Automatic annotation (TrEMBL):
Gene name linked to the record: Agr3
Record-linked InterPro entries: AGR/TXD, Thioredoxin-like_sf
Molecular-function annotations in GO: dystroglycan binding
One Pfam family hit: Thioredoxin_7
Record-stated family: Belongs to the AGR family.
Cellular component terms per the entry's GO annotation: endoplasmic reticulum
Record keywords, A-Z: Signal
Keyword Signal: yes
Descriptive protein name: AGR3 protein
Annotated signal peptide: 1-22
Amino acid sequence: MLHSTLALSLLLIAVTSNLAMAIKKEKRAPQTLSRGWGDEITWVQTYEEGLYQAKKSNKPLMVIHHLEDCQYCQALKKAFAENEEIQEMAQNNFIMLNVMHETTDKNLSPDGQYVPRIMFVDPSLTVRADITGRYSNRLYTYEPQDMMFLIENMKKALRLIQTEL
């Protein structure tokens, strides 16, 4: 009798813990196109859609390459999402895309396929290889402390449209 009660108790504990884990998984926030980079920003779904919208609206496309399980991407995402100036410019002046896979355009990985990586494409569909971050070994990466540098590069992308196109 004692063995039966013990076995039944262990079975009940196992079932309850599995049920609790299943409930916890179900309560995850729904995944949106922002993926945490800014819920107020309008995001495009694909690179091709981003190119089309950039050309149509005469706004630059900002492409953020990242991975969900990358600690550097997560830190950058947090800084990006918390910066009001970046959020405002991204919402009003850019076509925005964040991707967790490589695009077919190899111009978006001129120095490798590392993450995080942020690149700009102007409305003439030219990848702006001249708008780089501050690191010589990863030209298009930004770190959380680089948000002012990213803001300056966003402004540069906007200025280039007015002077070059």
